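In this supplementary section we document a worked example of the pipeline. Step one takes a protein sequence of length 343 as its only input; no multiple sequence alignment statistics are reported here. Step two produces a three-dimensional model, which step three serialises into structure tokens for compact storage. The input and output of this example are shown verbatim.
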Amino acid sequence: MDLSPRHRLILKTLIEEYVSENKPIGSKTLWERYELGISPATIRNVFRDLEELGLIHSKHCSGGRVPTELGYRVYVDSLVILYELTLREKQRIQEEYLKNQLQLEQILLATCRVLSSLSMSAGVVVAPEKSYDTLKHVELIHVSGDEILMIVVTRSGSVIHKKLFLDGNMSQESLYQVSRFLNQNLMGRELEEIPNLLEGLRNELDAPTPFHQIVEILKAGFQMEVKDEVEVYIDGLQNLVNQSKEDSEISLEKFFSILEDKNFLRELFKRYVLTDRVITYIGSKNDNRMSGISIIATSYRMGEKKIGSMGILGPQRMNYNKALPLVEFTSKLVSEMITRLSN
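The serialised model returned by step three reads:
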């Protein structure tokens, strides 16, 4: 949208004042608090222009103005000046991760706490699909008859148990040989690529005979059952409760209905798994359920592969200039830690 420098200045100032004060902003307020170099009458004229463009609106005939969803969109896209996280804020984020062992679930839970506590909104993290994890160790254990137990330990700290049934009985010593062979050749590889790698290992000269006998069963065992219900972590519900008490326009019921619907929330944030940047979603966009709500989200990585998404969900009256760099910094930190886990 092509706005004059004056209109851009007034819109930016009004939104930041409204985010700070949580009440409609009048021309006199901007004139008294900011050195804009124009009169209250000129500010009112600019208000009228911005209102005609759908960027602000007045709740009451004689009241001040508040931003619309379109106004927030223009602000985030072209007017916001990003806040630089202080050294103390960055240390606080890093310290949150040091409280726990570096395992995937603990990292993702800490990420939710960081995002919610520093944004005063809700932090949301969508976990990776299981197949994105990498193999740390595999062990084959004879149970009884033709039944064996395959224990898969991943770099993220997950332990997966799979019951496999052979065509016949196999000794524990033979299973040890196969386990050693698998660990020598597959450690550090992603779970999703292991079935194909097993096929390639048929041609290895040092492959033990028992491996050839059960390779097809192993391929089936490593077909990880990726659940549709990928885990979603949420923190900061109390922040939304507090904000709803301060702002009558924030519907606590609406936030709770979204956060309690894990399927909806999962699909909402999975849109951002493949993004390369921080994205801001503002308002309904054909979904009235999201009216009045904003999301700031991005992806996180394991090495070069994008494996999950994370971000902030809260009211449109959000401190975007701080929330945007918060999500960006945290995603980079999380990606570095998860990458170290996979090595």
